[in-house]
Design goal:
The protein is of the alpha/beta class. The chain has a single domain, classed as Rossmann fold. The protein is built from ten helices and seven strands. The two termini are about 30 Å apart.
C-alpha cells in the first residue's frame, strides 16, 4: 500500500510542525511548506525551518518533503500543488494551517494585539485576511483537483473559538474574530460542494497551544490545561484515520472534542 499523502501549510514551527510530525509518526508522506528554510534562512526570530521539520517527520517514521513557499504568492502555492500532483497523483489530507496574521504579535507587539480595534493599525486587518483567510481559500482552491482524486480525502482548516472572555472582550480583537469566522465559513461552505466528490472538510479549533510564538507571552497567558503542537497533530491524525469521519464534514470541531472521541492525549 502507498503511503498516504498530506500537505501541511505553515509547518516550519507551531501547530503546523506538530501536525506534520504526528502524521510522520503514523507513516504519512508529508509535504511541508513555509517561508523559513535552511537555504534561505528564517523569516522570523522564532526557530524552525521546513527542512528541520521534514527531517523530524522522516525520523519519526514518515517521509518529510520540504518546500519553501510564501503562501501569499498564488503562483508559489499553485506550484506546490502541481508538484504534489506530479509526484503523488492525488492528496489525502490538506492541513490548511499557514497564518500570517500572527506576524506582528510574534514580533513582540503584544500591546497592539490587545488594543481596542480603533487603536490597532489597518495592517492588523490586512494581515488577518491577506495573510490568513485568503491564503486558506487559495490553497484549498489549488488543492481541490488533487483531493477529488482521492475519495475520502480530508481538509482541516485551523481556526479558533470565538467565545469572548469573562468581560466580553474578543481575544485578538475585531479583525481576528472576523477572520476566524470567515475560516469557519470556508470549511463549512466548501464541505457542501466537496461532499458530492467524497471529500470531507472540517474547521478545527485548538485551545491555547504552547507554540513558540505563544510561549513568548507565557507570563500574560493562563496555560493551565493548554495543548501541545504535537497533541493537536495527534488529534488530526486520529481524525484522518476515522472510518466515520465523513459524518463530521461541514462541522466546526474542537481539539478537545476529537481528543475525547479518539482517546488521544493532546496536552503532552
Amino acid at each position: 500500500m502507498r503511503q498516504r499523502v498530506a500537505w501541511v501549510t505553515g509547518s516550519s514551527r507551531g501547530v503546523g510542525k506538530g501536525a506534520a510530525v504526528a502524521l510522520g509518526q503514523a507513516g504519512w508522506t508529508v509535504y511541508i511548506t513555509a517561508r523559513s528554510s535552511s537555504p534561505a534562512g528564517r523569516t522570523s526570530h522564532l526557530p524552525g525551518t521546513v527542512d528541520e521539520t521534514a527531517a523530524t517527520v522522516t525520523g519519526a517514521g514518515g517521509t518529510g518533503i520540504p518546500i519553501a513557499c510564501d503562501h501569499r504568492d498564488d503562483s508559489a502555492v499553485a506550484a506546490v500543488a502541481a508538484r504534489i500532483g506530479r509526484d503523488q497523483g492525488g492528496l489525502d489530507l490538506l492541513v490548511n494551517n499557514a497564518w500570517g496574521g500572527y506576524a506582528r504579535v510574534n514580533a513582540g507587539a503584544w500591546q497592539e494585539w490587545t488594543a481596542p480595534f480603533w487603536q490597532q493599525p489597518a495592517e492588523h486587518f490586512d494581515d488577518m485576511f491577506a495573510g490568513g483567510v485568503r491564503m486558506h481559500y487559495m490553497t484549498l482552491r489549488a488543492c481541490a483537483p488533487l483531493l477529488l482524486r482521492a475519495p475520502g480525502s480530508l481538509v482541516v482548516t485551523l481556526s479558533v473559538s470565538l467565545s469572548p472572555g469573562e468581560h466580553g472582550e474578543q481575544p485578538g480583537g475585531v479583525a481576528y474574530a472576523m477572520a476566524k469566522a470567515a475560516d469557519d465559513t470556508l470549511a463549512i461552505a466548501a464541505a457542501g460542494q466537496l461532499a458530492a466528490h467524497g471529500v470531507i472538510s472540517v474547521a478545527l479549533h485548538p485551545d491555547w497551544v504552547r507554540t513558540e510564538g505563544v510561549m513568548q507571552f507565557a507570563a500574560q497567558i493562563e496555560l493551565k490545561g493548554s495543548q501541545s503542537p504535537e497533541g493537536v497533530g495527534r488529534a488530526i491524525a486520529a481524525l484522518a484515520d476515522d472510518p466515520d469521519r465523513a459524518g463530521l464534514s461541514g462541522r466546526v470541531c474542537t481539539v478537545a472534542e476529537l481528543a475525547s472521541r479518539y482517546g488521544v492525549d493532546v496536552t503532552s
